[in-house]
Task: structure prediction
Amino acid sequence: MTATPATRAAGVAGNPFLERVAHAYPRLTPVERKVADVLLQAPLEFARTPMAVIGDRAGASAPSIMRFCRALGHTGLTDLKQALVASLGRHDTAVLFHLPPPRPRGGAGDLLDHAAAAVHRLRAHLDGAPLADAVAVLARAPRIDCLAAYQLGLAALYARDALLRQGLAARAPAMPAAAAAREAAPPAAGLFFCQGMPDAAMLDAIGHYIGDGFGAVVVSDVALAPFVPASARLVLGSAAAPADGAGALLAHCLMTDLLLAGLRAPPRAAPG
Result:
């Protein structure tokens, strides 16, 4: 079904990326509008769909899809998808979890709502394969380097201190992550905390730990695959965190505690 102006307006409110697509819609070519319709009808699915499938759904060729991306100011489909995923994670709480209805900020109830939401989301990781994979990556490393960007630097420090208290070798290298990663000797595993899409320095660092170290565990608030490589991924889910970032910090610290619980647990006996 082709998106009408009404359905486009209803679905994009509050998301700057989708609003930009809707505003550009009148000046797009007919074929480019068909690509825009596919995106606006299911933005998250669009981000996960290969170009060939998008072309089949929109009746558009690969060059037409590339022209659509450039019309929106992007160098190509991957660049557009990266911006789309980051925008969905930051502006659409329905991507992975619905928060309680918004209310005046600053009260104790607001803080508790975000804490409860973080705990609820993390329950999905208990006994899950992604958590087990992440624990396995960290368990085989002689040291764990905890890295973060922006306001999540405190999450990296929390993880380092928690690991050290458990008698594990850990550090929190100073950013930029790329420079810190290249100092890693002996090899270590990287534990990365991301809010939105990581910058180029952190992407470089993640690749360094995967290629030259013991792997990289990426903890993020939005789904970053396939744009960001990782040995193991842990997606916390988007949350409309308070302006000071406390909600995001709490979720990342709680995930650290889950990882520590997994590292403390005795290994399971092999079946048979």
In short: Residues 5-91 form a domain with the Arc Repressor Mutant, subunit A fold (CATH 1.10.10.10). The radius of gyration is 20 Å. Residues 1-10, 91-106, 176-181, 239-244 have pLDDT under 50 and may be disordered.
